[in-house]
Amino acid sequence: MFIGKKKVWIVGANGGLGLALTRHILAQGYQVTASTRRSSMALQQLQTSYSGQMTTVVGDLRQQNSETSPQLTAVFEQYGLPAWTINASGLLHSAPSGRMPEKRLSQISEPFLADNIHANTYSSIAIAQFLDRLYKREDPFRFLCLSAMVGSIADNHAGGWYSYRMSKAALNMFVKTLSIEWQRRFPQACIAALHPGTTDTSLSAPFQHSIRSDKLYSPQRSAERIFRVLRSLTPADTGKFLHWDSTTLPW
């Protein structure tokens, strides 16, 4: 039933931006595999509305020996490999536990730094390792990792947010490094990092008081922009760090 539809895999499909991406890409007529660590009523409603276009896989590729990898393999064997993969998962804070981005050196802790690296860096590594064994040399595919402007070393003028900045800078380095390997192995592929802009989700909620209204974007608007960037990517763009308007950002 998915013959002829472009296949898209969205990781973190239950987050504010991931859910908007899932909804927007489904509305374009694409077939979506939505990955999430936890399902939700909103995802279930999308599944009902787009029963012929959407498959949901609940689990976490970062967990060793989980059932997530076999489930995804079965989905892709049945319906075809994803032409696009988007990693929309991430961590900035854990408000219920009081863990927030650090403003000072003294606030850095090993557990919170490790959690940021695990969520913001290793998640894309785990996805890439899974993708790496799916494709043949001649296959064209795109892998977009949602990064952040604060991961730019050159653009860091304010300081603070140590763990988040470091984890996103590490993600950017991973994207650049992997792009070099994949240029040799998959010359038709493209992997890129993207700054989607500050989006009105629970991720940014504690910090929105300091953001100008014209710089805070709705999830739908950010999803539309990400979709436009994905459509425009070519192998020549591999290894780039992009703004939501497709311009190149400094490392």
Structure write-up:
By secondary structure, this protein is α/β, with parallel strands linked by helices. It has a single domain (7-243), classed as Rossmann fold, CATH 3.40.50. The chain contains six helices and seven strands, in the order βαβαβαβαβαβαβ. A seven-stranded parallel sheet has the order 3-2-1-4-5-6-7, with helices on both faces. β4, α4 (110-132) and β5 (142-146) form a beta-alpha-beta unit. The longest helix is centred in the last third of the chain and has 24 residues, at 162-185. It is globular, with a radius of gyration of 17 Å. The N and C termini lie far apart (43 Å).
Find the CATH superfamily. NAD(P)-binding Rossmann-like Domain
* Terminal residue distance: 43 Å
Mean pLDDT across all residues, rounded?
90
Reading off the top of the CATH hierarchy, the class is best stated as Alpha Beta
Shape: globular
**Strand order across the biggest sheet?**
3-2-1-4-5-6-7
Which oligomerization state do the chains in this entry correspond to?
single chain
Task: Describe the sheet with the most strands.
Answer: 7 strands, parallel
Order of helices and strands: EHEHEHEHEHEHE
Q: How many domains, as an integer?
A: 1
CATH topology, by name, is Rossmann fold
Using the CA coordinates, give the radius of gyration.
17 Å
Roughly what percent helix? 25-40%
Low-confidence stretches: none
GO cellular component, one term: cytoplasm
GO molecular function: oxidoreductase activity
Organism: Photobacterium lutimaris
Protein name: Cell-cell signaling protein
